[in-house]
Specification:
By secondary structure, this protein is of the alpha/beta class. The protein is built from 5 helices and 34 strands.
Amino acid sequence: MKFPQKHTLQQIATIIGCDFVGDENFPVLGMNEIHVVESGDIVFVDHPKYYDKALQSAATVVLINKEVDCPKGKALLISDDPFRDFNKLTKYFKPFESSTYMVAASAKVGEGTIIQPGAFVGNHVIIGKNCIIHSNVSIYDGCVIGDNVTLHAGTVLGADAFYYKKRPEGFDKLISGGRVIIEDNVDLGALCTIDRGVTGDTTIKAGTKIDNQVHVGHDTVIGKKCLIASQTGIAGCVVIEDEVTIWGQVGMTSGITIGAKAVILAQSGISKSLEGKTTYFGYPAEEARKKYKELASIRQIPKIIEQLKS
């Protein structure tokens, strides 16, 4: 998430009320999670296990809960609770805006696009040309939709990331300030839920077709011309490369990559990255023919036991 204008390190420290290490005029351009940070961004870290990763990342400002040696060319924001202060910055730069109309006045809708009665289009949404938005679709603030997109009834774009920190008093939510981007010629079936990025974008690229009741988690990127069947659940920060086919009821853990032109058969469980141009099945998912042979072997176990008894 980029700020509307450049800020200084001192200005950011003042917003969240913390100390800093570095030049007070050090430029700060935005804030992001560690997997999408760029030069000029703030990243937060609150556990020693991840200090080095944050300090050596592309981020040039590290919001951290301990004063450590600051790498050359970077700056630190010293906070007793980086998670809380990262949320403060999200609220400051992306405050919640209430709506009073079903289609917000600030939304931009392209020529030839049809928005059916009962659909909601939030603030600063951009919708391209020749789209069809069916009834009861909800498009939250800041979403971007390309040309020739179809969204079927009940689909939700831009709900918050499922991202919580466990505290003694309960779960503390990381506030989402990112977007959902749907590129050209994408179809989304009924009752799909596409969560916004925490600070970056959840993206579905051109030509992808998604069936009913599919969930896509925060900051996930789905490539071009993918096919995803119903009741598939994709966690956050997943990368699905181009022309992947995913059949029904597949479940996928966070932070993995599915290679281009992979095929994942129905009801498979994906717990690690998979190479492309291969068909997978089962849990944990493996190359399908290998998995089928394993299952065939397992079916022989009762027969083998009976033979041993005799």
